[in-house]
């Protein structure tokens, strides 16, 4: 069912909602402003421009559950915890926890108005909102280096497989008269974040069982790593056999986008395969629950 909220019939009835909305905006103005700023200006956070509106649309599409019941005590408790987190993170000037307190407050309002059942009904929009928050730079830096080294090793191995003379030193691939430096931007971290979001979205929309969704979500990690390794290989191959200029500029950027589309198609194909397997299991379970078909007793042969 669609979201249908009972609207106040008088100005006095609107007063609590208006005061609450103004208090919310005053308290969370800084997290909202800085979050939108990062979505617009930071390439690592630009996926939030897609995830946040999509989460709002999915919540509207799911509507309010008929079993939704307000839970004021739990809602107030979550709201108070979110406000405390907002205050502490503001003192420490820590953006990530400040932004998470924003969404925690929104979840508290949902529980206050409609209860925990409604929050579980909106699990997919809630997860997309959480993924739209940029990860702190400390975590990004610590995660980027292992991905850089893994992509470098995979790319060098594939180049050796194609008889290209290479020497690997950390995240630097030495070719004859040329060297490829696998930077943090080429680590695959950006595509990994996007693929995890896409895996969550496709699993939530097309799969029914939580285990199936976890399988698709977990598959996004090796898919991103393998595709990025192939990106390093393709760059080195073209640099060695075609022209060193293809390893930088527009060609390098376009190559990244093409391989991301390939990764998306691979993940979509895996989701389709898991969904097909789910349907087969469901049909098999339905056949087994129906029992064997009834048959007529054989007619007696005439004497």
Short description:
The protein contains 11 helices and 3 strands. It is mainly alpha-helical. Mean pLDDT is 81; it is low at 294-303.
Structure commentary:
The protein has 303 residues and is mainly α. It has two domains: 15-131, no CATH class; 137-289, no CATH class. It is 72% helix and 4% strand. It has eleven helices and three strands. It has helices spanning 11-27, 29-41, 48-62, 72-92, 95-114, 116-121, 123-131, 137-161, 189-206, 210-241, 249-290; strands spanning 167-169, 172-175, 178-181. A three-stranded antiparallel β-sheet has the order 1-2-3, covered by helices on one side. Strand 1 (167-169) and strand 2 (172-175) form a beta hairpin. Helix 4 packs antiparallel against helix 5 (95-114) and helix 8 (137-161) packs across helix 10. The longest helix is centred in the C-terminal third of the chain and has 42 residues, at 249-290. Mean pLDDT is 81; it is low at 294-303.
Structural key phrases:
303 residues, mainly alpha, single chain
From the alpha carbons, calculate the radius of gyration and give it in angstroms: 26 Å
Strand content is under 5%
Order of helices and strands: HHHHHHHHEEEHHH
Tertiary shape: flat
Number of domains: 2
Helicity, as a percent range: over 70%
Task: Look at the structure and give the mean pLDDT.
Answer: 81
The parts where pLDDT drops under 50 for at least 5 residues are 294-303
Mind summarizing the main beta sheet?
3 strands, antiparallel
The SS-based structural class is mainly alpha
How are the elements arranged and paired?
Layout: H1 11-27, H2 29-41, H3 48-62, H4 72-92, H5 95-114, H6 116-121, H7 123-131, H8 137-161, E1 167-169, E2 172-175, E3 178-181, H9 189-206, H10 210-241, H11 249-290
Antiparallel strand pairs: 1-2, 2-3
Helix pairs in contact: 2-5, 3-7, 4-5, 7-9, 8-10, 9-10, 9-11, 10-11
């Amino acid at each position: 069912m669609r979201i249908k909220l009972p609207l106040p019939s008088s100005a006095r009835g609107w007063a609590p909602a208006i005061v609450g909305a103004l208090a919310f905006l005053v308290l969370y103005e800084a997290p909202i402003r800085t979050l939108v700023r990062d979505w617009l200006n930071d390439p690592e956070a630009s996926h939030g421009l897609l995830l946040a509106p999509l989460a709002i649309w999915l919540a509207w599409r799911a509507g309010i559950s008929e079993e939704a019941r307000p839970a004021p005590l739990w809602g107030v408790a979550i709201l108070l915890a979110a406000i405390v987190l907002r205050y502490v993170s503001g003192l420490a000037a820590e953006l990530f926890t400040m932004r998470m307190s924003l969404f925690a407050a929104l979840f508290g309002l949902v529980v206050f108005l409609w209860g925990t059942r409604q929050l579980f009904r909106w699990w997919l929009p809630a997860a997309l909102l959480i993924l739209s928050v940029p990860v702190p730079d400390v975590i990004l830096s610590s995660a980027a280096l292992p991905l850089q080294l893994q992509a470098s090793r995979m790319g060098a191995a594939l180049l050796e497989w194609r008889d290209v003379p290479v020497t690997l030193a950390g995240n630097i691939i030495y070719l004859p008269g040329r060297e490829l430096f696998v930077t943090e931007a080429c680590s695959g971290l950006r595509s990994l974040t996007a693929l995890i979001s896409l895996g969550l979205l496709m699993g939530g929309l097309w799969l029914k069982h939580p285990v199936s969704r976890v399988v698709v979500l977990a598959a996004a990690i090796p898919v991103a790593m393998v595709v990025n390794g192939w990106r390093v290989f393709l760059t080195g191959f073209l640099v060695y056999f075609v022209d060193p200029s293809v390893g930088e500029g527009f060609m390098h950027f376009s190559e990244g986008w093409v391989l991301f589309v390939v990764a998306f198609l691979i993940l979509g194909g895996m989701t389709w395969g898991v969904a097909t397997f789910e349907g087969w299991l469901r049909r098999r379970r339905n056949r087994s629950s129906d029992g064997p078909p009834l048959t007529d007793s054989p007619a007696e042969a005439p004497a």
